[in-house]
Amino acid sequence: MESCKIIAVANQKGGTGKTTTACNMGHALSKEGRRVLLVDFDPQANLTMSFGIERPDELAMPMHDILALVMDGADLPDKNVYIRRGNRLDIIPCNINLSITEINLRDEMGGEKTLADLLEPLRPFYDYIIIDTNPYLGLLTINALAACDSVIIPVSPQLWSATGLTDLLQTIFKVKRKINPRIAVDGILLTMCDERTRLFRDAKALLDDFCGDKIRIYDAHIPSTVKVGEANYSSISVIDFAASNKAALAYTAFAKEVIGHGSSNSHEATA
After folding, report:
1. pLDDT beyond 80 at 263
2. Contact predicate 62/95, CB 8 Å
3. Which of 2, 135, 159, 223 fits 14 for a cystine, CB–CB 3.0-4.6 Å?
4. The model's pTM
């Protein structure tokens, strides 16, 4: 069996589909027979709510509390206390208090590795651990990058910015150099695509030129469809909400690419 791979889904630009990608990639990988743990590392807790947890503020042991124990060097409770089990995949949920954790990390010696300290012991239990990050390059995102083996970057052709992507890649490169030498960029996933438009074709051409042969652009493109929004509103994956929908099929194809590429084909983080 392959060793566990920790993947951060990251882009400091909001609205690119990070949470939707983390959720549906997790569901698609689990349907391919992989053991998956989702990690909600965004204080907005959208990934937590997509798991059917309607009131994150009422969680008994959210991410903030478990990380506080890690920072204090205290013994952790049994993993079943802070990992919520699902039918096909699990999640470490969070709530708005995670924003307090980010403040506390500023004064913590070695605080950038706090999430890694939590996740490393969980590797034997999963094939993939997927971290959903928040939409800016703060200490929470640095923690996610320090903990992961690779990064997948969702990019919307409507919002793509060479400057924004360069900033993210520079951050990944700094993390690789100073904190986490194993980190790599797995690739860019195009989301919310309408392949019939000139905007998509032009943005895709520009992205191809920008990335060249340095960063993979996944063959699967996630189409723009109302079913994704309806699934998010219903707090389930689009794969479970409408299995035959084009977005569900695209996420399934994307998950198979993720499995097929493995960790050996990941690209070096470049800036």
Report:
1. no
2. yes
3. 135
4. 0.93
